[in-house]
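Example (one chain per record):
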Amino acid sequence: MNDQDRPLTRDERVLLGLATGRTTSAELATWSGLGERDVRRGLHRLIASGHVFSRQRGTYELTGLGRGLIANLPVRESGVI
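Predicted structure:
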């Protein structure tokens, strides 16, 4: 299985959701098809690793490191997921 064939991880879906302009966990959950709790766990992990930050409680943004990681993600022909 090459990189294009593997499914995206939870954290990759959250990163891509942020890249498409979603900023809250509820928006990310709806967009990604994940549960809101899963999205919040992913966000917590991505904040700890320096890929995401939050200026205001409940809203999230990508860091430069997060944008760099997205550039290396496989993008499907039909869209981001």
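Caption: The longest strand covers residues 52-53.
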